[in-house]
C-alpha cells in the first residue's frame, strides 16, 4: 500500500529537503476517550494504516469510526505531513453518528 | 408425493419431498441431463444437514443418493460443484467475486441472478447452509424452466435468519412450479408435478410467457413472520401476498404493515391499501373474494393492494390466477407450438442482463429507478438486498416486457449493471488495496475539510433510513459550495462531531470546552457571521446556527438593502431541532433534510423561502434576523425551532460561546447575555412575508426529502465515478490522487 515502490510520490524530492528539519517519525496518540493507543509513524505514511490498526486493535468497524485531528476529519490518504501534525499530537476517534427525526 | 397431512407439524418435510420429487422427475425425463453444480451442492448439503439427519428418513435419503449418484457421473460438473462448495465457505466480497467469475466461465448459461441470490443467501444464513442450499436447488429447478425472477426477487428480499421462512419460500416456489403446470394443462389438478412439462421447459430452454406474466402480476411475498418481511420490504409493484403462519393473527400482520410497509413505501408509489385481511384459515374466504373479483372482470390487482392470506389461501390465489390465463396456444405433448414467430417466447437465449426493478408509475423518472438500483447495490454490499436481474437480451424483449406491463417498466442496461457491480465490488486491477478503505469517496479532493464517505453510507440515503454524519457532512459541503462566493466567508460549518465532542464525556453529558478548544485554532469564530452547528443527539439530527453578526456590518447593510428590513442580532444561534426521532418516517426527513437543503444556506428563514422556490441571495439574506424588538441586537441569540426540549443544547451552545470568547478573545460573554428564543415565538426570525408560524408540517411540506436523498445519492455516485476515473488515469501516481 504505502510501499516505497508502490506509491512514488511526486513530492519526494522536496521531502528530502524538509527531513532534516523535522524528525522522520512521529508519536501520535489515538484516543476514543476510553482507550489510548500510541503509534509511531512516519511523516509520509498514510494515516489509513494507523486507522486500520486502531480499529483492528479495538475491534471496531473502520466504517463506523471517525478520526479527527483538531476538529478536522482525517481521511485515509492523509499523512501527518499533509495534516501538519507534530510529535505527540492526538487523534480523536468518534463513533458514527446516526439519527433521524420524528 | 406425500399428501399434506394436517397432523404433521412439519411442512418443511413436505416441501422437500416435493422438491426431490420434482428433481427426480426431471432426471428421469432427462437421462443425459447435467446437473448443475448448485443442485448438486444443494443435494449434498441437504443430506448432510442436521435437519435431514434428525429426520432419519432412509427412504428419502436413498432417493437423494441415487439422484446424486447419477449426476455425479458428470465429472466435470461434480468437480466444479465441489470446488464451488469449498471456495464458497469463505464469505466476503472477495470470495463472491472469485466464485462469480468461476461460475460465469464454467457455466456460461448459469444464471447470474441465481448466483447472486446464492451469494446473498449464503451471506445471510451462513450458519445454516442447508436451508439456503435446498432453497437454491428449488430456485435452480425453477430457473431451468422459468424466468422466476419475480418470485425470488421477492424471496431474497425477505431472506432472513428465519427457519420458517425458508419453508415458506419453498412453498412459494412450489406454487410457481404449479402455476407453470397449470399453464401447460389447465385441466390437471394443481399440486401434482408433471415431469414432462419440466422437461420441455428445460430442453428447449424456453420460458412460457403466460407463466412469466403470472409471476409478474403476482409477486409473492411470503413469510411466516411478517415482522421479518416488513423490515426489509421494498417497494414493489406487485400485489403482495403475505403468506403468514397461523400464529399470526390478521391484526398482527396489519399492524406490521401499517407500521413498516406503508411508511416505507416510496413516495412515488401509491400507498398500499389492505383490501382485506384474511384470516389465516379463511381459504374459502379468499377464494370467494378472488372469484368475485374475476367475475367482475377485474381480476388484475392493482399494485397498491395488499392481500394477506394464509398459505392455503395464497395457494388458491395462484391457482385461480393461473386459471384465467389467456394464452391461446395449444399445447402439444407438453410443448408449446407457436402459431407464429410473434408468439414465441423471447427468453430463450439470455445474452444480456438487465436489471428489472419492477414496474413503476408512469411518470417515474429513470433516475428514481436508478437510485433505487444503486441503493440496492449498496445494500447488496451489506448482504441485505439483492438486485434483481432479469434476462432480457434484446430490445424486442424489453419491448415485450413493456407491452406486457400495465405500469411502465424500467429496464436498466448492462452498463448500469457494471456500474453497480463496480461500486459494490471494486473491479480495479490493483489488488493492493483490499482494505476496508477500498470503497471510499473522498470529497472534496483537496482542502482541509475533506470528508470520507464510504459507499456503505449510501444505504443511509435509502428511504426511511437514518442519516449518518457522513451524509450530513457531504450535504453541508454541497450547500457550502453552492453558496454565493461572497457569502462563503460568512458561514462556517462545524463538523458534525463538533457538538458531541464537548458535550459528552465517557458517555455522560457534560460540558468540556477543552475538548474542542483546538478545533478553532485556525479560525476566529467571532468574525464569522454565521456558524452552523450540526447537532446529533439521541439519534436526532439538528442544526444549530450561530450567527455572529458583529463583524458583518457590510453584510448587514447589504442585507438591509436587499431586504429593506434591518438585521440585527449579533450572535444569534439558531438551533433547528427535531424532536422524538424514534419513529422515523419519510415525512419527517423533511425537517432532517432541511439541514441538507438546497442552495441557500440553511437558516431558519430560508426554509420557508425554499418553499417558494426562491434562492436568490436576497432571499438567503433573510436568515439575518430582522431587527426584533424584544432582542438585543448586540447580543447572541439562540433560536430554536420545533419545541422546547432543546434547553440542553442551548445551554451547551451558550457555554461554548462563552468559553470560546473568553479563551480566544478575552471577551466575557455571560450566559445571561446570550438569549434564546424559539422560532415559534420569535416574530423576529420570521420575515413579514412569511406568514404565520413556522409549522413543520406546513413549512417543510414542499421539501422533497426523498428527492433530496436521491439527489445526494446521485451526486455521490457521480463523484465516486469521477474519483475512480481520476484514479485510473493517474494510476502511476499515488493511490488517492489529490490534484
TrEMBL record, chain A:
Protein's recorded name: SUMO protein smt3
Region annotation (Disordered) ranges: 1-27
SMART domains: UBQ (SM00213)
Domain of life, source organism: Eukaryota
Gene (UniProt): SMT3_2
Every Ubiquitin-like domain range: 24-100
Automatic annotation (TrEMBL), chain B:
Compositional bias ranges of the Polar residues kind: 603-618
Biased composition (Basic and acidic residues): 553-564
Gene Ontology molecular function: any one: cysteine-type peptidase activity
One Pfam family cited in the UniProt record for this chain: Peptidase_C48
InterPro entries registered for this protein in UniProt: Papain-like_cys_pep_sf (IPR038765), Peptidase_C48_C (IPR003653)
Stretches for region Disordered: 184-206, 550-570, 603-628
Organism: Extremus antarcticus
Name the record gives this protein: Ubiquitin-like protease family profile domain-containing protein
Keyword Zinc-finger: no
Source species taxonomy: Eukaryota, Fungi, Dikarya, Ascomycota, Pezizomycotina
Ubiquitin-like protease family profile domain location: 451-739
Record keywords: Hydrolase, Protease, Thiol protease
Glycoprotein keyword on record: no
GO BP terms in the entry: protein desumoylation; proteolysis
Stored SUPFAM superfamilies: Cysteine proteinases
Domain of life, source organism: Eukaryota
Family according to the record: Belongs to the peptidase C48 family.
Amino acid at each position: 500500500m504505502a510501499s516505497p515502490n508502490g506509491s512514488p510520490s511526486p513530492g519526494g524530492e522536496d521531502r528530502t529537503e524538509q527531513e532534516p528539519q523535522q524528525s522522520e517519525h512521529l508519536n501520535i496518540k489515538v484516543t476514543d476517550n476510553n482507550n489510548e493507543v500510541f503509534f509511531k509513524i512516519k511523516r509520509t505514511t498514510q494515516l489509513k494504516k494507523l486507522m486500520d490498526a486502531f480499529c483492528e486493535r479495538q475491534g471496531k468497524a473502520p466504517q463506523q469510526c471517525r478520526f479527527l485531528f483538531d476538529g478536522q476529519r482525517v481521511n485515509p490518504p492523509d499523512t501527518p505531513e499533509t495534516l501538519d501534525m507534530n510529535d505527540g499530537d492526538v487523534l480523536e476517534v468518534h463513533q458514527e453518528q446516526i439519527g433521524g427525526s420524528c | 408425493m406425500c399428501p399434506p397431512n394436517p397432523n404433521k407439524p412439519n411442512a418443511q418435510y413436505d416441501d422437500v419431498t416435493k422438491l426431490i420429487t420434482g428433481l427426480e422427475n426431471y432426471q428421469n425425463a432427462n437421462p443425459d441431463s447435467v446437473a448443475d453444480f448448485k443442485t448438486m451442492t444443494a443435494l449434498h448439503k441437504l443430506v448432510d444437514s442436521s435437519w435431514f439427519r434428525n429426520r432419519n428418513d432412509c427412504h428419502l435419503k436413498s432417493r437423494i443418493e441415487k439422484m446424486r449418484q447419477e449426476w455425479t457421473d458428470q465429472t466435470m460438473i461434480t468437480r466444479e460443484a465441489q470446488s464451488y462448495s469449498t471456495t464458497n465457505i469463505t464469505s466476503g466480497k472477495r470470495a463472491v467475486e472469485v466464485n462469480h467469475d468461476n461460475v460465469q466461465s464454467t457455466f456460461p448459461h448459469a444464471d447470474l441472478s441465481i448466483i447472486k441470490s446464492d451469494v446473498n443467501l449464503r451471506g445471510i444464513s451462513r450458519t445454516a447452509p442447508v436451508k439456503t442450499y435446498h432453497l437454491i436447488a428449488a430456485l435452480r429447478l425453477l430457473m431451468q424452466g422459468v424466468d422466476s425472477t419475480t418470485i425470488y426477487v421477492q424471496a431474497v428480499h425477505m431472506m432472513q435468519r428465519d427457519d420458517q421462512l425458508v419453508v415458506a419460500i419453498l412453498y412459494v416456489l412450489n406454487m410457481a412450479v404449479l402455476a407453470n403446470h397449470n399453464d401447460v394443462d389447465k385441466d390437471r389438478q394443481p399440486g401434482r408435478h408433471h415431469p414432462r412439462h419440466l422437461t420441455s421447459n428445460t430442453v428447449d430452454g424456453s420460458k412460457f410467457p403466460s407463466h412469466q406474466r403470472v409471476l409478474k402480476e403476482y409477486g409473492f411475498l411470503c413469510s411466516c413472520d411478517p415482522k421479518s418481511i416488513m423490515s426489509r420490504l421494498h417497494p414493489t409493484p406487485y400485489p403482495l401476498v403475505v403468506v403468514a403462519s397461523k400464529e399470526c393473527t390478521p391484526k398482527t400482520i396489519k399492524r406490521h404493515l401499517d407500521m413498516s410497509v406503508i411508511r416505507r413505501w416510496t413516495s412515488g408509489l401509491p400507498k398500499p391499501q389492505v383490501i382485506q385481511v384474511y384470516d389465516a384459515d379463511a381459504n374459502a374466504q379468499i377464494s370467494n373474494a378472488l372469484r368475485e373479483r374475476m367475475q367482475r372482470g377485474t381480476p388484475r390487482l392493482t399494485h397498491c393492494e395488499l392481500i394477506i392470506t394464509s398459505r392455503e389461501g395464497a395457494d388458491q390465489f395462484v391457482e385461480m390466477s393461473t386459471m384465467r390465463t389467456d394464452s391461446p396456444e395449444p399445447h402439444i405433448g407438453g410443448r408449446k407450438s407457436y402459431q407464429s414467430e410473434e408468439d414465441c417466447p423471447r427468453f430463450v437465449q439470455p445474452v444480456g442482463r438487465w436489471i428489472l426493478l419492477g414496474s413503476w408509475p408512469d411518470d417515474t423518472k429513470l433516475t428514481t429507478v436508478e437510485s433505487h438500483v444503486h441503493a440496492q447495490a449498496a445494500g447488496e454490499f451489506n448482504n441485505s438486498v439483492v438486485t434483481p436481474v432479469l434476462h432480457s437480451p434484446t430490445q424486442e424483449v424489453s419491448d415485450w416486457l413493456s407491452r406486457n406491463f400495465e405500469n411502465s417498466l424500467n429496464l436498466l442496461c448492462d452498463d448500469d449493471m457494471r456500474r453497480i457491480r463496480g461500486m459494490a465490488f471494486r473491479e480495479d486491477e490493483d489488488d493492493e488495496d483490499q482494505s476496508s478503505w477500498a470503497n471510499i469517496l473522498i470529497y472534496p479532493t483537496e482542502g482541509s475539510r475533506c470528508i470520507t464517505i464510504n459507499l456503505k453510507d449510501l444505504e443511509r440515503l435509502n428511504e426511511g433510513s437514518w442519516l449518518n454524519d457522513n451524509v450530513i457532512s457531504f450535504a453541508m459541503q454541497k450547500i457550502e459550495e453552492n453558496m454565493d462566493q461572497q457569502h462563503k466567508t460568512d458561514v462556517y460549518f462545524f463538523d458534525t462531531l463538533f457538538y458531541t465532542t464537548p458535550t459528552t464525556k465517557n458517555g455522560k453529558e457534560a460540558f468540556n470546552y477543552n475538548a474542542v478548544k483546538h478545533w478553532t485554532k485556525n479560525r476566529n469564530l467571532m468574525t464569522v457571521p454565521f456558524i452552523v452547528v450540526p447537532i446529533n443527539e439521541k439519534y436526532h439530527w439538528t442544526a444549530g446556527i450561530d450567527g455572529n453578526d458583529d463583524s458583518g456590518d457590510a453584510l448587514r447593510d447589504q442585507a438591509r438593502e436587499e431586504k429593506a428590513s434591518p438585521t440585527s442580532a449579533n450572535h444569534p444561534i439558531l438551533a433547528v431541532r427535531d424532536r422524538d426521532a424514534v419513529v422515523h418516517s419519510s415525512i419527517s426527513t423533511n425537517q432532517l433534510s432541511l439541514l441538507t437543503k438546497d442552495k441557500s444556506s440553511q437558516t431558519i428563514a430560508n426554509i420557508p423561502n425554499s418553499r417558494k422556490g426562491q434562492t436568490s441571495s436576497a432571499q438567503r439574506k433573510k436568515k439575518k434576523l430582522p431587527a426584533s424588538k424584544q432582542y438585543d441586537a448586540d447580543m447572541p441569540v439562540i433560536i430554536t425551532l420545533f419545541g422546547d426540549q432543546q434547553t440542553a443544547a442551548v445551554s451547551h451552545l451558550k457555554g461554548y460561546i462563552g468559553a470560546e470568547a473568553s479563551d480566544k478573545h478575552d471577551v466575557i460573554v455571560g450566559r445571561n447575555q446570550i438569549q434564546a428564543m424559539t422560532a415559534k415565538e420569535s416574530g423576529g426570525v420570521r420575515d413579514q412575508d412569511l406568514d404565520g408560524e413556522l409549522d413543520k408540517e406546513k413549512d417543510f411540506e414542499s421539501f422533497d426529502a426523498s428527492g433530496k436523498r436521491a439527489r445526494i445519492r446521485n451526486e455521490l455516485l457521480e463523484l465516486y465515478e469521477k474519483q475512480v476515473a481520476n484514479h485510473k488515469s493517474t494510476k502511476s501516481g499515488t493511490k488517492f490522487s489529490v490534484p
